[in-house]
Each structure stands twice: as C-alpha cells, then as structure tokens.
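Figure 2 data, in text form.
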Amino acid sequence: MEHYLDNSATTAVSAKAAEKAYRIMTENYGNPSSLHLKGMQAEHELENARKIIARTLSVQSEEIIFTSGGTEANNLALFGIAQAKKRRGNRIIISSVEHSSIMEAAQRLENDGFEIIRIAPDKDGVIKPQSVLQAVDNSTVLVSVMCVNNETGAVMPVSEIFSAVKEKNSDIICHTDAVQAFGKIALNARRLCADLITVSAHKVHAPKGCGALYLKKGVRIVPVQYGGEQEKKLRPGTEALPLIAAFAVACDEFKIEENYKAVQELNSYAVKKLENIEGVIINSPENALPYVINVSAGRVRSETMLHFLGELDVFVSSGSACAKGKPSHVLSAMGLSKERADSALRISFSKYSTKEDVDALCIGIETGLKVLVHR
C-alpha cells in the first residue's frame, strides 16, 4: 500500500478536477480568444474559473492573472514590480527563507543593480515584523514575505508585516507567496494588506502547470513576456483552459476549516509518535501550519533515509522539491547545525492523509535508524 506524505511538493488531483480537465480537452476545446461559438464557450469557462479563484482570496475577478504556476507568478511579481518602480527606488526586501523562485529572482535583480535585503528568521523560522520594518527606507519599492514556509510550515505574520510597512510608506508594494497557505487557511487580500498574492493549482488537488497572481487594481507591473493580448498582456499566450478550469473545481471543493481540524489531529498524532523515536528531532515550530512537519532523523542523511522509506512505499521529501536535494537554505537560516540539516525530512499532509500513513512512516524511520546507522 502506498503512503504518500509529500503533499507540499504536489498533491493528487481530485476526481472532479480531473474529470473537468478531460471534458474541457475533449469537448470545450476552443481557444478563449477566438470569436466564434467554440471560442465564446471557452471564454465563459475561463471567466467562470477566474471568478472562483478570486472568491477564494476575496478579490475581484479582474484582479486575477493566470500563469503556468507559482514560480512564474513569483517571477512576474518581482521582475514586474522592480521594473515598474525602478525610477522611484531600487531596494527590495525579502525573507531569507523564501521559495527558490523568489530567492533566485531576487539574486538576478541584485546582479542587475537592485539592492536586495534578506531578512533572517528567528530560531523558530518566523520572520519578525520589526526586522522587516527596520530595513525599510526611502528607496524601498517592494517587500515580499511568504505566508507559510514550504519546508517547516512556519506561519509568517504577513498581515502584521505588511500593515506596518504600509504605515511607514504606503507607496511600497507588498507581495506574498501564498502557495503553501492557499486552500489550507482562509486568505483575504485586504486583511493581508497584500498588493500581490501568488497561488498554485497543483498544491490543492488540481493539475500541474497552472497558477495565478492576484494583482491589486491600480498596481502597475511590467510584463516579462510579450506576444499577445491574453491576461491583460501581462501573461500573453493562449490560456491553459483545461488546467485552469480544473483549478477552479479544486477550489470549489475547499473545506478549509473541516480539513484543518482533521489535519491538526493527524499532526498531533504524528508528532507524538515521532518524538518517541530515539534520534528524531522536530524542526518545525510549535505554531507551524499542521500540514507540514520538518524533522531530523538521527545521523542518517536525508537522501539515504528517503530511499529506504521509498522501498517501503512511504514517500516524503528532504525539503523543497524544487531544490532537488541541495542543502536547505531555510534550515541554515534558522541556525540549525549541518548534521541536523543533512538529516532533515519534510512530512506534508493533505485531506487524503491517514493515521495508517503516519504509522507506516514512523515504522519506516525507526527501522531505518536501526539499519542504516550501522551500514
């Protein structure tokens, strides 16, 4: 039996979302930009999906720009704002525990002459508002802080950070990568004080290859791609309607409070079992999102333990899937030792996760620690 606990990397597509994608591909396959009946039917599906995604963030449908995923949305946010605001200032503030699509985009902007300020978290992996506020000066044009860390589940006080930034300088644009928070906790753009919000489909039981960027009405960004009128010319190219429509179906299936409670109970069950395994240390903070648990497993390297667990049909990760095994910059920023970081595992749940999955995981880790340490 398969025990999949790598849901922060990607999730299984729900049956209804998969059915919707298939139906669009085989029946409503018109181009949303075409002016004939097929095109109009496709456009209707597109705009209906836009309304559904907008509703999940409590924003207007015209404020949603569809992209190929979270990485593209994050790139559009950073490069788009940097270019739009470069005459006013060149300082961009990010946290040092962001997803690689933020970290590497920021590095490129730094190479191009922008000043990038990277704010380190406290030992619990959380970014403190005062640390961000101290870095804000007259040349600051953008602040980007994620909602939930993808490796530890640490929940960032985004609303508090952004409201303080706006109070200091209302012209500063605030962006949050909400990929790991979306569908798990209720998000409201106004309450977050966010001008831009990134979300992704394949983290919420929809297909890969689709995401969206909330762009607050009145905020100007410069496109990074050119070639068409689609998505207000900010993301030109024919929209991936099957994926977008399936994304909307998955969002319609959100039961945030109900799922949160169930996953919270599963998290507590897992933490108790993991803490009883000699050599296992919990790295996630106590107030982390219950969907993610980061642990260090004794003296066994992450990659070795991953392969061992995989042979038992238990699937977890060593950190962000996008890092492909590279050392975790998140755990390093938290001040964890190299040995502890090298043995880190990320366990991540979905609404489909069960106690049986946790039991199989714990048996696997406990067995692995006994077998692998002596190899």
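Caption note: The chain has 13 helices and twelve strands.
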